[in-house]
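Supplementary Methods, section 5.1.

A reviewer requested that the exact input to the structure prediction be made available. We therefore reproduce it here, unchanged from the version used in the analyses.
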Amino acid sequence: MRSDRQLIKLPPDITFVIQIVSFLVFWFLMRTLLFGPVQKALATRGARTTGAEARATELTAEAERLGAETHAKLAAARERGARQAAEIRRSGEATEQQVLARYREQAAALLERERAETAAQEEAARAALRQEAERLAGEVVTRVLGRAA
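The structure derived from this sequence is encoded cell-by-cell as follows.
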C-alpha cells in the first residue's frame, strides 16, 4: 500500500526554509514592534497599580490610626466631662446641705424665739388671770359674807 502522495518530503524543499525564515523575521518584528512595547506598558501599569495599592494601604492605615486617636480623645473627653459633672453635682449637693443647715438653724432659732415669746405671753396672761381671779374671789367672798375676807 503505497501512496502516491508523500506526507513529508525529505529533505525539505526551499519553501520550508522560506517559511522558517519568514516566521523568524515576523517573530523578530512582532517582538520589537508589538510585544516589547506592550510588555513595557503592562509593566509600567503594574508598577502604578502596585504603587496605588500601597498608597491606598497607607491611607487606610492612617485613617484607622486617626479614627482610633479620635475615639480615644472622645473617650477621654467623655470621662473628663463625667468627672466634671460629678464634681459639679457634689458641689451642688454640698451647697444645698449648707443652705439647708443654715435655714434649719434659722428655723430652729425662730421657733425657739417664738416659743419663748409664747411662754412669756402665757405667763403674763396667767399672772393677769390670777390677779383677776383673786379680785373676783375677793368680790365673791365680800358679797357672800358681806364683808372683806
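DSSP finds one helix and no strands in the chain. These observations are discussed further in the main text.
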